[in-house]
Amino acid sequence: MSEPLVTDADLVRRCLSGDDGGYAALLERHQDRVYSFLRRLTGDARDSEDLGQVVFLKAFRSLETFDLSRPFHSWLFAIAHHAALDFLRAKKTDLSLDHDEQPIDPADESDGPERLTEAALDGALIERLISALPPLYREALLLRHGEGLSVEEVAAALGVPEGTVKIRLFRAREMMRRKWEAFEKDETREAPRP
Amino acid sequence: MGGRAMDCENARRLISETLDGGRPDAALEGHLSVCAACSRASARTRSLNAALASLPQLRPSAAFSTGVLASLKRAKAAESIPAWPLAAAWAASSLALAAGATRLSLSIPRLAAAFAEGAAMLELAGRLALHALPAPRAGAELSGAALLAVALFLTISLPHDRKTRLIGAKS
């Protein structure tokens, strides 16, 4: 992907110099990414729009604290991460990871590839698999693959060490893969015999 | 089986790390060539990552961007209004009401009490109206409320003759 002619830093400078057009341009450039992240994290369109408003308003009103040498989207996702977690906490969503810390035992995967009919990994299935993840794993995976952030950028956005991000990504991938396989087993079991 | 399981556990971690920029690992490649379960897990994990990367971006409603920009405009407009004129107006009106109450209290105590209550109600109405304004207005609100409190205190607590001297009224 080619670099845009006008960078995010240029737009931030425009905002700080009093040019309101800079805000509209930054919003147009980033609103879909932020909204997609929030929508897949909260699971609700209306909540995501409300949260998105909070995120952009907070970002625009604290632009003078933004370090122009850093990627703007990472900074924006850090604000979105905090807003989303506050929202989920207020909804009494369980954000702990304790129940997912059991060691992975690859030996329990006895089904060979010939016994499973690989379910097509379409959009609906992948959305379902994402929504089944704990929120802290979900956001790491969404930022890493959905938004294409590096591990370093994800760590900066979430405010955790890179090692923690790698562990969350590893567990998220394992959980998703296992749920995909469990889904296939169900499909295979329920499929009518000829 | 325990040794294999341990190797598989490490293999799964290395599979994940290679997806995050880790270097290709010869020991991992060797393991994948002999372990069907890990080989399948590796292929599936890559498929999942590819599917995640190709998820479509979702769009908020058309009202979203106009809502953000309108909220920003309101916030900036509220910031640009200086707080002192509001505080000064509030202080002046509070003092005027308190002075009126003091004068009345010299001759008609009941009416004075009613007047003081009216002043308090007006002050409350002012505060409710200020809820439409953002945080910087809180300073003005507090200034006005504090001055009104002082004025009412003087009305109630000063002895009759001192009130008379204070406002120059003759009973």
Report what the structure shows.
The complex is a heterodimer of chains A (194) and B (171). Chain A is elongated, with a radius of gyration of 20 Å. By secondary structure, chain A is mostly helical. Chain A has helices at residues 8-16, 21-42, 45-61, 72-90, 123-131, 135-146, 151-158, 162-190. The longest helix of chain A is centred in the last third of the chain and has 29 residues, at 162-190. Chain A contains eight helices and no strands. Chain A folds into two domains: 1-93, Rna Polymerase Sigma Factor, Chain: A (Orthogonal Bundle); 96-194, Arc Repressor Mutant, subunit A, CATH 1.10.10.10. Chain B is mainly alpha-helical and 171 residues long. Chain B folds into two domains: 2-53; 83-167. Chain B has helices at residues 2-19, 26-34, 36-53, 63-80, 84-107, 109-130, 137-157, 160-167. In chain B, helix 2 (26-34) crosses helix 3 (36-53), helix 5 packs antiparallel against helix 6 (109-130) and helix 6 (109-130) runs antiparallel to helix 7. The radius of gyration of chain B is 37 Å and the shape is rod-shaped. The N and C termini of chain B lie far apart (105 Å). At the A-B interface, helix 2, helix 3, helix 5, helix 6 and helix 8 of A face helix 1, helix 3 and helix 4 of B.
Structural class of chain A: mainly alpha
**Approximate strand percentage of chain A:** under 5%
What's the tally of helices of chain A? 8
Give the overall shape of chain B. Answer: rod-shaped
The chain pair with the largest interface is: A-B, 51 and 42 residues
Q: Main beta sheet of chain B: strand number and arrangement? A: none
CA radius of gyration of chain A is 20 Å
| Radius of gyration of chain B over all CA atoms, rounded | 37 Å
Give the number of DSSP strands of chain B.
Answer: 0
Give the overall shape of chain A, derived from the CA principal axes: elongated
Low-pLDDT residue intervals, each spanning 5 or more residues of chain A? 110-117
Secondary structure class of chain B reads mainly alpha
N/C terminus separation of chain B: 105 Å
Q: What are the segments of chain B in which pLDDT stays under 50 over at least 5 consecutive residues?
A: 1-6, 132-136
Order of helices and strands of chain A: HHHHHHHH
Instruction: State the helix count of chain B.
Output: 8
**Helical fraction of chain A:** 55-70%
CATH architecture of the largest domain in chain A: Orthogonal Bundle
Measured by DSSP, the beta-strand proportion of chain B falls in: under 5%
Average of pLDDT of chain B: 72
